[in-house]
Design a protein that fits this description.
Blueprint lengths: L11 H9 L8 H14 L4 H16 L3 H4 L4 H7 L9 H19 L4 H6 L22 H12 L7 H10 L22
Helix pairs in contact: 2-3, 2-6, 2-9, 8-9
Length: about 190
């Protein structure tokens, strides 16, 4: 039986997410955008709650280009907020649209967002010790810097804790438990 991180329950959806996604480096713009927004949806909730609703979020938002997400009207967002398959929090749903606008604005100013986001992890992808004596951090200097930078550019629901969860999810840091079968020291390579 494979040893997984202590936070990973026996839920098959959670285990698949852990094994196939969490902590694996992501460089694709649409997936980075989706994960940043989904981490914002998690605020005050468990990640499993968001994960169970991910398919609906993709149907409502993330199957579309970021430019299309940026055009969603307030009226459409109010309708989406009534869907029980989403987290019915209008400010969180509006943040997805507002983050798409911020993403586009930065892109138009010449930022390549995947590279810009990855700069916060540094040249050497951190591989942190995680065990009973070394619990996982909830934020770091890097996530605080990312949060401040994103907020300056108009992003919402991107506090330091959300940014650190995003960094963990997309592999900017390797916070798998030391005895997890996915703990591997790798150097970040931007492609």
């Amino acid at each position: 039986m494979l040893k997984r991180c202590s936070w990973c329950s026996t839920d098959p959806l959670y285990q698949a997410y852990h094994d196939l996604e969490w902590g694996h480096p992501v460089y694709q713009e649409p997936l980075l955008f989706e994960m940043l927004c989904l981490e914002g949806q998690q605020a005050g909730l468990s990640w499993l709650t968001v994960l169970k609703k991910r398919r609906s979020y993709r149907q409502h938002f993330f199957q579309y280009p970021i430019a299309d997400i940026a055009k969603i009207s307030d009226q459409d967002l109010a309708l989406k907020a009534q869907d029980p398959q989403l987290i019915r929090h209008l400010a969180k749903l509006t943040a997805i649209r507002d983050n798409a606008i911020a993403w586009q604005t930065m892109s138009k100013k010449g930022f390549f967002l995947p590279e810009w986001l990855w700069q916060f992890s540094g040249e050497q992808r951190p591989c942190n010790p995680v065990n009973a004596n070394q619990p996982v951090a909830t934020s770091t200097e890097a996530s605080i810097a990312m949060s401040k930078a994103l907020k300056r550019h108009g992003f919402k629901f991107v506090g330091p804790t959300i940014c650190y969860a995003f960094m963990q999810a997309v592999g900017m840091v390797n916070d798998h438990d030391d005895d997890c079968h996915f703990k591997y020291p790798t150097k970040a390579q931007f492609v």
